[in-house]
Structures are given as C-alpha cells and as structure tokens.
C-alpha cells in the first residue's frame, strides 16, 4: 500500500520507466498524484480545478491529461499545461474516462454522461495529428483499454455491460477491426481498468467484485486475486523490472460503516504477482 490518502475515485495508474515514478489520478477530488519508490513520497501535483479522467505518457516528456474540457500536455516539473485538442467538445454533462496510448502513438479515450450513465458515451482515437475519430458509440462507461502488440490485438469494455471486447489491431495504422466478445463478468462485479503483462495476458480490475482477474488470450481466467477493497478500478505493472503490480481503488460509494471495515479502500495497493509487465506506450503528439 502506498502512503497517499484514500482516493474518492483512484484511476489510471501508469509507471514511467524514464523517471521511475508511478502516476495516477483521483478523478473526483480532482488530483494528479505521483509516487517515488526511492523516497517513498506520494506527491500532489497542481492541475487547477479541472477533473482528469485518465493520463498517458508523452514521447517528448511529461504527461497527457484527459480532462473534462479537453486533452492537455502537462509538464510535472513546472506545472505548465497546454491545451492540445478536445475529441468531444460541447457536450454538457460528459466527461473523459479511461484512456491509453497505443503502439502507433495515438491516444484512445472514452467519454461518458455522468448524470445517469446512459449508453450515450463513445470511444475516440486521437491521432498524432490531434484529429479524433469515433471508434465505438452507444457506450455507458467506456473502459479497460489495453494493447497487445505481439498478438496485434486491443481490448476495451463497457463497465455497465459486464463485457470485455477484443479487436484485431494494426500498429502501423493504429486502426482496429470489428469487436468480438472476449469475456464477461458476473454481477455485481463489473470490468474496469486493464493492463497487459509480458506474456500477453490481460489483467482486469473487477469494480464491485473486489478482485483482479488475469485472462489468457483465449479469454479463460488463469488467475484470480482477491483484494481487501470492494472497488478496485485499474492496474499497471511497474518497478525497475516491471514485476510489481499497482492497483488503484475507490473509497466511494462505500458507506462510513463499509469504510471502517475496509481501511484500504481508496488506497493504491502494490504487490508482486509472480509475472512481469511491459513499459507503457507513449503518445506522439
């Protein structure tokens, strides 16, 4: 467990191998966090009052922030923010959700309507020219983005649909093929954030399910890890050898009684699962 305070909605952990730091966000606070394993320091970074749904590493350095009002370049050392583009401008009540860089340097990001989570959200691919293409529509909570460059495959899910989809993916063009069902979760557990390990297995955090599942490329569950929190949200591999698994979680919507019984709710958990991961792809814009 990291020493940062409990997050209302911790999300999108990403390990930067250049700086040997973990980054993640608390969507609802809103806060951008970092963790330095050498000093053990968990640090807040000022990003104004805008909420961050997800983040990515940039090839030129720093981070990309997917905020309610668009995508921003962020320089951690100076706190400078630069507006880049907005894949879904002018939709009141919509916010950015899960996002991830692909091997071609594009940024994929989902949007949702927070008021009722109606299936009116979308999944966008933002190219290196900063132009956005709609990749999927009629989604309630787009989530679970992950890329397997070895098998030329990508994954995404709709948390409200209890389903994870797989697609063929072309790293040369950054385009995907038709989605096919990969796995389903059983209520109340919902698929949330994902990552890929070095063997090409998909790890997914089961929101409201209190565990992580490791899926083989066939879609079969190869490992299930129970967690001390009901609402894990996302996971990533990190550490010098990428053999540490970091898991963000949410303190909401737990009641005060539930929180007393789950003192780690909202914390970032870390452990060694016995397999390793790969460095994150970086956005090239």
Describe it.
With 285 residues, the protein is mainly β. It has a single domain (10-283), classed as TolB, C-terminal domain (Neuraminidase, 6 Propeller). Helix content is 2%, strand content 52%. The protein is built from one helix and 25 strands. The strands form six sheets. A five-stranded mixed beta sheet has the order 8-7-6-5-25, with no helix packed on it. Strands 13, 14, 15, 16 and 17 form a five-stranded antiparallel beta sheet that branches. A four-stranded antiparallel beta sheet has the order 1-2-3-4, with no helix packed on it. The relative contact order is 0.16. The model has no long low-confidence stretch (mean pLDDT 96).
Layout of SSEs?
Blueprint: E1 10-16, E2 21-26, E3 31-36, E4 41-45, E5 52-58, E6 63-67, E7 70-75, E8 80-85, E9 94-101, E10 107-113, E11 121-126, E12 132-139, E13 142-148, E14 153-158, E15 163-170, E16 175-176, E17 180-184, E18 190-196, E19 202-207, E20 211-215, E21 221-226, E22 232-238, E23 244-249, H1 256-261, E24 269-271, E25 282-283
Parallel strand pairs: 5-25
Antiparallel strand pairs: 1-2, 2-3, 3-4, 5-6, 6-7, 7-8, 9-10, 10-11, 11-12, 13-14, 14-15, 15-16, 15-17, 18-19, 19-20, 20-21, 22-23, 23-24
